[in-house]
Amino acid sequence: MGLSRDQKKWLKRGPGAWSAWVGLACYVGLLRVIPTEWIPGVGRRLGRVMYRFMGNRHRIALENLRLALGPRLDPAARRRILKTLMESLGITVAELGHPKYLRLESLRRFVAIQGLAHLDNALRQGRGAILVSAHFGNFPLLLARLGLEGYRLGVIIRDPRHRPAARFLDGWRARVGVATLRDKPRWASVKEALALLHSNGILVVHIDVNVSHGGDFVPFFGQWVPTFRGPTLLSLRTGAPLLPAFIRRIHSINHRLTIHPPLSMATTGDREEDTWRLLWGLTQAAEAVIREHPEQWWWIHRRFRKARPAHEVGRPLPDPGS
After folding, report:
1. Mean pLDDT in residue range 283-299
2. Is residue 25 domain-shared with residue 70, that is, in the same domain?
């Protein structure tokens, strides 16, 4: 007799989560004693293990690749992209857990910044800035690179269900100078985000997270998915510029953080329409980066789970030239 759904959840969040936590703790302990030059090799090995034991996420990732990139990619190509992604994720874990790699002098060597002037110019307006990113590349390094440089950052986070893991991640962000803003309760999240922007701080949000309730349906790889309205609403309310920002692995443990110019779209005076068009623009920016480097986006993420057909959403696919 098979396990019930509740039993499977308990195994995943209980013993399964603790087993993963113990394994990760041992791995982080190993990282403390290995030289920086070993990070790529050790990380790739971890990634291959992760790939082998992905379970249901393997199917989810391959289906996401099929939905997003279409039939031009054969099954073998999808598997190659997924394998490359998992090896990169293994290196990501090694980078984030290696104490010497996360020092400012090390990050200045390995993480180049392109377009920093766009952020500095936005902050000169005195209304704060909203960096809009995605689960692309080693995205936590975006926080570490700017936080250790002395920029005042806060990031809106959805806590993992495993509390020790949540506490570990909170501590990691605090060590690199980044404040953690919970996404729930929503009123508290909005209050903290507004306080940060009003004090000319930088709010970091991810445009590709799943929305439990509400949100606007926006096309992403041709799939209409619910999208968090927070960054656009905060921008319209405070005047804080919206700047797409993505970090890409260039080679081995070298990365480039690119901060794009502020998103500029003509407002209509209709708040709902303006919110939607800004969300669409931000989603397009993320999609363009992912299409260029598909092996660096988190295809294991169930982004298309709540997708709806266009006729249910009530909007036609927008003209790319509009």
Report:
1. 97
2. yes
Same-domain status, 156 and 259:
yes
Tens of pLDDT along 70-84? 888 999 999 999 999
Per DSSP, the chain holds a count of helices (H) and strands (E) of 13, 9
Helix (H, G, I), strand (E, B) or coil at 183: coil
How far apart CA 117 and CA 292 sit, in angstroms, is 24
Question: Is the residue at 192 inside a domain?
Answer: yes
- Domain membership of residue 300 (yes or no) is no
Please check whether residues 56 and 142 belong to one and the same domain. no
In the numeric block, the tokens 């087993």 are attached to 19
Q: Confidence band (pLDDT; 50, 70, 90) for 307? A: very high
The encoded tokens of residue 222 equal 């041709």
Entry pTM: 0.89
When divided into structural domains, the chain yields a total of: 2
**Are residues 120 and 230 located together in one domain of the fold?**
yes
Sequence-distant (≥ 6) Cβ neighbours of residue 175 within 8 angstroms: 102
Residue/partner pairs of 117-124 with CB below 8 Å, 24 or more apart: 118/243, 118/259, 118/260, 118/261, 118/262, 119/151, 119/202, 119/243, 119/245, 119/259, 122/240, 122/241, 122/243, 122/262, 123/200, 123/202
Residue 17: domain span: 1-101
Angle at CA of residue 92, ends 88 and 96, nearest 5°: 175
Paired strand residues for 75: none
Same domain, 58 and 196: no
Same domain for 168 and 235, yes or no, is yes
